Amino acid sequence: MKAAVIALLFAVSLAHSASAADLSGTWKVVYAGPADRAPKTIGSIVLDLKVDKSLVTGTAHIGVWPGDAPISGGKVEGDRISFRATGHLSSTTGIPTCQFVATVNGDEMLLTMTAVANAGGPLGAGVDYRYKGKRKAE
User: Which long-range contacts (CB under 8 A, 24 or more apart) does 48-53 make?
Assistant: First the structure.
């Protein structure tokens, strides 16, 4: 019985590791929320993700503004990833930092982006912007 439990835990561990590794790659998501709340400069986001066990790094290409941003604080929990990214293009409120939370099912991603620092311009403070997309073919 003890050997069966250990084997089951090992199999679950391998499955979890495999799902994390499967998140690496390039993903493109497009705005999928209400049209009247669409952020003007962020119709789509491209994520270049690198996953090592439960850590996520890479770059978020966040539309024409705030632009390319390194991923920080990234983590994987099963089919869910979360991270922050601070753009490089400033606005009247400064350079925004966005929080991203995504759920991945195979090659499909549902993503929520929220401006958590220096919101303004086309990004409302505390507003959840929803995106949907797929992994780009390599």
Answer: 49/23, 49/24, 49/25, 49/81, 50/24, 51/20, 51/21, 51/23, 51/24, 51/76, 51/81, 53/17, 53/20
> Which 8-state DSSP code applies to residue 118?
S
**Helix or strand holding residue 111 (H, E):** strand 108-117
Bigger pLDDT: 30 vs 38: 30
Superfamily in which the 2-135 domain is placed by CATH: Avidin-like (2.40.128.30)
| Distance in angstroms (rounded) separating the CA atoms of residues 138 and 128 | 30
pLDDT in tens, 84-128: 999 888 877 788 899 999 999 999 999 999 999 888 777 888 899
- pLDDT of residue 7 exceeding 90, the answer is no
- Cα separation, 76 vs 23, in Å, equals 9
Q: Across all residues in the chain, what is the average pLDDT?
A: 85
74: tokens are: 């990234």
Q: Is the peptide bond before 96 cis (omega within 30 degrees of 0)?
A: no
Host H or E run for residue 18: helix 2-21
Going from N- to C-terminal start, the domains of the chain cover 2-135
